[in-house]
Amino acid sequence: MSQIYAVLVDGVMYAAWLFLVALGLTLVYGVLKILNMAHGSLYALGAYAGVTLIGPWVAQGGNLYVSYLLLVLAAIVAGGAIGLIMERGILKRFYGQDPVVLLLVTYALFLIMEDAIKLVWGVDPYSVSEPYSFLGNFDLGDLSYPNYNFLIVGVALVAGVGLTAFLKFTRSGRLLRAVIHDREVSQAMGIRVSRYFVVTFMAGAVLAAIGGALTAPTVSVAPGMGVEIVVLTFAVVVIGGLGSLPGAAFGALLVGLVRASAVHYWPQGELFSIYIVMALVLAVRPKGIFAPLEARKI
């Protein structure tokens, strides 16, 4: 029984981390219809920006509670700035073209950012673990979990609930939903679609960067860390349905529980199990479980 509880707790914690990163990816696709391959590099950028900002703060004995705010601040600044440059400087020139072209453009941006990160921060790993250990541990039976993981769960819940509330209950959110539904009609009605595009892409970039920044105290921040996360988040949004926020939440929870089950019962198949689930879901629902219905064209 204790192992079942461990699977549930591990799965939820892993799912929260995945959802936080996948949320930005599915938001960008829902509005701009761009499958952003550079999302993993934005995640890595947030991790590097976070350790760069809190490293000196922790080394000088700064308040560790403040370090959590600094992590988020670093992610907002780095993700927002680079997201603005990417969207206004490059992506807007390719709107209206074949989706494959945009996919290749974002893949090129991914490669450029990976090399740019190496040029700025080098290839040596960075590690600042104090914020991770500072909050202590939570005991569940014979197992002990860092309380820092519950912080990530909380941030993921706030991000998901906050974005859902924004889309449903604010004027800007309703206008954004109109853009998602039909950008041409929205533009004809006077909605500044380009403004919503840039704000959405920046928001997606910031969410990816926050995911990276909050992950930074738990791992060694090193080149290539964005590659794995972009593969996992793609699996999440494909399972749930591209552009669907409930789909991203369900996909993250499913992947998290499957991965946790594999870790405890089939360790050698940990990563493989995720792709088994994705293949099974796509065999039944090729566009994902929560994929929106499309109008039938005659």
Automatic annotation (TrEMBL):
Keywords: Amino-acid transport, Cell membrane, Membrane, Transmembrane, Transmembrane helix, Transport. Coiled coil: none annotated. One of its GO terms (biological process) is amino acid transport. One of its GO terms (cellular component) is plasma membrane. The keyword 4Fe-4S does not apply. The keyword DNA damage does not apply. Belongs to the binding-protein-dependent transport system permease family. LivHM subfamily. This is ABC transporter permease. It comes from Pandoraea oxalativorans.
